[in-house]
Design brief:
Length: 161
């Protein structure tokens, strides 16, 4: 008997499941450029490796098998940075806990603007992928424990008041 059965990748919404032009337009509203990488090709600037999204400067790189939450997360890392810091980014955007929290919060907000995704679905995908929060779920964190992340974004004009 084999007790080490292979674990399947979590079932999450991927870039290939949505209209690429919708994602392109959403990121463009934040002065980001979305690039589709060919299936099987390395993703430039991917911190975690394929199929995770990559970032270099104002460019976000994805393949069709890239999870939407990864695309949004990496894009939001760039959005929370001032332009002078964004220009220097290659692969790793931050080591700041407040920026990381703001990034997670903003990716959920932006998912609501992405047809075929929405915030509720994105939070389920984040949980399935392994994001962890002390309240047990992304939704609980977002609704009950993310005041500091929201305030951080509001202070910088990155959320509507």
């Amino acid at each position: 008997m084999n007790d080490t059965a292979p674990t399947a990748e979590p079932q999450v919404t991927c870039v290939g499941d949505i209209r690429f032009d919708d994602a392109l337009a959403l990121l463009a509203t934040h002065d980001l450029h979305l690039h589709r990488v060919a299936d099987g090709a390395p993703i430039p600037g991917s911190y975690w490796g394929e199929p995770e999204a990559g970032i270099i400067g104002s460019d976000v790189y994805v393949r069709d098998d890239t999870p939407v939450h990864s695309m949004l997360h990496e894009a939001c890392h760039l959005i929370v940075l001032p332009p002078e810091r964004r220009a220097l980014v290659h692969t790793d955007a931050t080591d700041s806990v407040p920026e990381e929290d703001a990034t997670c919060y903003l990716q959920i907000v932006l998912a609501a603007q992405l047809p075929g995704v929405g915030s509720a679905r994105l939070m389920l995908d984040m949980d399935a992928w392994g994001y962890t929060y002390r309240l047990g779920s992304t939704k609980a964190w977002f609704e009950q424990d993310a005041e500091d992340a929201k305030a951080w974004l509001l202070e910088r004009g990155l959320l509507p008041a």
